[in-house]
Amino acid sequence: MVPIRVLHVDDDAPFLELTAAFLTAASDRFSVVSEPTPAAGLDRLAADPVDCVVSDYRMPSSTGIAFLEAVRAEYPALPFILFTGEESAAVANDALAAGATDVLRKRPGTDQFDRLAARIRTAVERHRAQQARRRYQRLLETVDEPT
Questions:
Q1: How far from 34 is each of 16, 91, 120, 137, CA to CA, in Å?
Q2: Which residues form the domain of 114?
Q3: Cβ atoms of residues 100 and 81 within 8 Å
Q4: What is the pLDDT of residues 37-83, one digit of tens each?
């Protein structure tokens, strides 16, 4: 199985630790790196590629949507899941309009981590399949037709 490297950005340090623990327990495929701010998340992305970004919405220095827009500017196809406690449909709509792969509401209990793990797997597998199709298409375009 191919590993899945996740960057989780949230200003709540205990929640970052809890999420990392549950995701790595959900699957040995997951490797989670955590950052407390969007700026630190962008620095991490520049230095250390990941397969998926998971971000909170409401953070002191920025919003998850502003972070998403910054990520999209440099990494337009990277899976990005907004994992938020916000109950506003407008936040979800804004995130999807800005290019979020998925939006998942935080809920009490541990089921939320199972749902998050499933959404990450789906997003990453879809992204990898799209990349493989693009590589295959480029290969077909570069191969000369037989005469």
A1: 6, 23, 15, 35
A2: 4-142
A3: yes
A4: 999 999 999 999 999 999 999 999 899 999 999 999 999 999 999 99
